Amino acid sequence: MFKKILIANRGEIACRVIKSARKMGIKTVAIYSDADRSALHVKMADEAVHIGPPPANQSYIVIDKVMAAIKGSGAEAVHPGYGFLSENSKFAQALAAEGVAFVGPPVGAIESMGDKITSKKIAQEAGVSTVPGYMGLIEDQDEAVRIAGEVGYPVMIKASAGGGGKGMRIAWNDEETREGFESSKNEAANSFGDDRIFIEKFITQPRHIEIQVLCDSHGNGIYLGERECSIQRRQQKVVEEAPSPFLDEATRKKMGEQAVALAQAVDYASAGTVEFIVDGDKNFYFLEMNTRLQVEHPVTELITGVDLVEQMIRVAAGEKLSITQDDVTLKGWAIENRLYAEDPYRGFLPSIGRLTTYRPPAEQAAGPLLDNDKWQGDAAPGPVAVRNDTGVFEGGEISMYYDPMIAKLCTWAPTRDEAIEAMRIALDSFEVEGIGHNLPFLSAVMDHPIFIAGDMTTAFIEEQYPEGFDGVSLPQGDLQRVAAAAAAMFRVAEIRRTRISGRMDHHERRVGRDWVVTAQGESFELAIDADQDGSTVKFTDGSTMRVTSDWTPGDPLATLEVDGAPLVLKVGKVPGGFRIRTRGADMAVHVRTPRAAELATLMPEKVAPDTSKMLLCPMPGLIVKVDVEIGDEVQEGQALCTVEAMKMENILRAEKKGKVSKINASAGDSLAVDEVIMEFE
Known about the structure:
single chain, alpha+beta, 19 helices, globular
């Protein structure tokens, strides 16, 4: 077995690989750019090597720099993680030339399956049903438009070397094809150092289901069930689960056997993933094979108890698989939510800055994890498992140079409903401050009836949130539970305030019994009777709720029981109440005496400033180009400028007709969020 492995990656996946290597007694080497000097993967590794400036195309994907780090450290093997150089055959060849083991498949398999165009041709030759499209390389915009017309709109424009949603666009007409072709080429060049593009038909009602395969170099191959990855935004997966709520055992077996056969046809050896599009009748079509570890591999580990990173390392060391297909059993249900530094209230645009608070829920192990001592750590076994794969820490910086992923929060439970409920509580318990993030959106998805029913397609986000995400309004029953909790918490805070003020005598008598709680525009009149164990909250309609908690004023997280059911609230202070965040809702909850509530209705509302005649920068980023000049008349939907952040190009468009009166930024400028790019008459 190897004594030292270099991880040619960063962030949470580098940290993830370090955990398995450490468990196997293998020393690890991290690489880092200037931006990652203080990153978590650098702190976790046994040693670290600096490889250049922040942009990935000057550091992490420069093969010569990575090779120099390998030679200098004496690493015998390299795990590439995902993205960056993980599917780059030139990198695998460079390693082979130096006698360094690649913790991934052979070069031939990378070349034939890692490349989206070649893999489709092989699949077609093998008789696998594939999505219609044009597999040749496309030279320019005109050729892209011609091919898109032949395939038939809508089409998917994809980077041949792509992955993770980078270099990918959907086009519904010729103009979008031209724009998408250029943006995809640029993103592909920046992210993968390869700007080749191809086009395929975009299937409008698909489910995205993928099979995890594991093969060794001795001719053995198995599949470890499937993952459902249908909830995606901009072709980037957001929520994954294993198994799929849609597949039956017969379809799973057929897909699994086909995936293994395809892998073995190219002498595959390592962990890999065969992705399929599955229609409503369970017909499946080969999409692509990812010759690397997938971002969402934890859900497979959670339902099988198999450590995929460990297996990859063992295969790379020449070992035979220790598991056969008969040994693979799928136990329980696992769900992964990707926590991104993206602001859902601003169209999911990237958000950068310092993590002033970062406190994930406590990890715990259960189920198949305990069968072979995986991921147990110091956590006590329980009826559910909670796992958080992360590459950041409180006080750390989210950089504009890399992928916006902060963490992958996973839960496991014996049933899907229990896994969803465990995820709801885990999301509510996850404290992140300092940047915009998608925790509220993830909570909303976990409560969405289509997701709960398991009836989602890849169009879920687009169809259910066509105008974007503007928060959650809690249903009446949940709102009443929050009102009861807030009243009980406010009473505790008031008692503490009277004690601190020195009015010790009869302090509880001075804290009233009757309150009015206002939230989401609704008011609840209630009375509180408190005892040593908690509070009984009585509403004017005669209903009562029992509230118990050990919350103390100032705690940013409150874990309560309301009528015997758990309720987790993120708690902030506002005058006369709290800022409460729970289940995707973010609201001011005011707790007032009946007289104060009466007076509050007479207060005027604050009016927001008018920014309707300005184009504001929606995120911190780099201006790539400005498409208009002062004096130009612009039409609704017209491209105004392009902003790049976190490896993605975002085209900002006019919301209405207007005339450009002032331009404050030009190509090459770095702007902060809400800086004015241009103004209109």
